Here is the input.
Amino acid sequence: MQKSMCDETKGEDISLLCAKAADELLTISNITASFVLGDTGDKITISGRSIGDINVQVILEKLGGGGHITVAGAQLEGMTLDEAKTELINRINEYFSELGEVVILVKVILKENIKGVGKKDEIINASDGYARNFLFPKNLAVEANAENMSELRAKQDSNNFKKSQEKEEAEKLAEKLSKISVRIKVKTGSNGKIFGGVSSKEIAENLEKEHNIKVDKKKIDLKETIKTLGMFTVDIKLFEGVIGKIKVDIISE
Here is the structure.
């Protein structure tokens, strides 16, 4: 079986080019089926051909296409060429699995997030052909051998230790914030309403100015600006599962 890709070409219909390429691939010795993918600009077109031993119609019907046993096609929207290729390979593996043929699987460690396959640093089972013809050459994964597994565990341990330290620091900061308050002076009208309101930006600036504590304003959970005088309790998202609370006293100048 052979897979290929057509680049977008001006002057000649990309679907026709892929169909011709799929036909040509069958003339190569020992090729019993071929799939050619092309990017038309708004969708990915797939042409499938076989000499009859492999039912390309069944494979491409899994991708919403159709045709006949030896000639079939499909069109995929909202995907890149690489994503479409991944989907096609998965459907081919499904086809052979349903036939009861043995698909050799290898354990690999993903180095990047791959849509429909897995996330970075995840260990998955991939077909041997998919791993060696796609994942490894594109540096998207490495074999889950003893050396690479050891490196992965060391990386995970390091990340876990770092997160543990960050959480501990966040918890200490949350405790500190619970014991202090921020006073913000604002201009008000005769009715006591604030001109403009107090935003997370002002709270972050005054927190740093009064207490030398620097917090990203984006972590201050303020649904809307404060528009009245008084004492308010504001949440600050310091870390996953750690919420700090600080009192903000809005007073008139």
User: Anything to note?
Assistant: The longest helix spans residues 146-177. The longest strand covers residues 242-252. The chain has a mean pLDDT of 87.
